[in-house]
Specification:
Layout: H1 3-23, H2 34-52, H3 56-80, E1 82-84, E2 94-101, E3 105-107, H4 109-148
Antiparallel strand pairs: 1-2, 2-3
Length: 149
């Protein structure tokens, strides 16, 4: 799959989730709170814009940066999450509530899983695209050295 199409798709999914989080009062996986909603919407917009851009390197860089961010959020949630009740969204006790900024950025267990899924998808696509580029570069160098002789 082309990394630009993936960035467009993931960006749209993140922006739609942010919009649903703004209008739905409850939801385990949706972002809640104005700062969280804006942050996710901006991340989705960055992915969407980098996917639409004609330069593939921008999509690759966006996938790498946001993929690392999501993996770190998921990892932080599973390693440092504690039992607690989120201040917004579903007001149920969560075993792995990760509070980055109290009342603003609070992530539940389903958020950790979605962060891992999206981050892993973005990083794997980055790796595949990088390998394709490296192989293409080697072929180009090989062909150029044959012309010189």
């Amino acid at each position: 799959m082309d990394i630009q199409k993936l960035c467009i798709g993931v960006g749209c999914v993140i922006m739609i989730a942010a919009l649903f989080g703004a209008f739905l009062p409850e939801g385990d996986i949706l972002p809640h709170g104005i700062f969280s909603i804006i942050s996710y919407f901006v991340l989705g917009l960055i992915l969407l814009a980098s996917g639409i851009n004609k330069r593939k390197v921008r999509a690759r860089n966006a996938a790498l940066g946001i993929g690392i961010l999501f993996i770190l959020l998921g990892l932080g949630g599973f390693l440092f999450g504690e039992q607690g009740i989120p201040s917004h969204g579903s007001f149920r006790v969560d075993d792995k509530l990760f509070t980055l900024v109290p009342g603003i950025f609070e992530f539940e267990t389903l958020n950790h899983m979605s962060h891992f899924l999206l981050g892993g998808l973005l990083l794997i696509s980055f790796y595949i695209e990088k390998k394709k580029e490296d192989a293409f570069s080697k072929i180009t160098v090989y062909l150029q050295t044959r012309r010189v002789r």
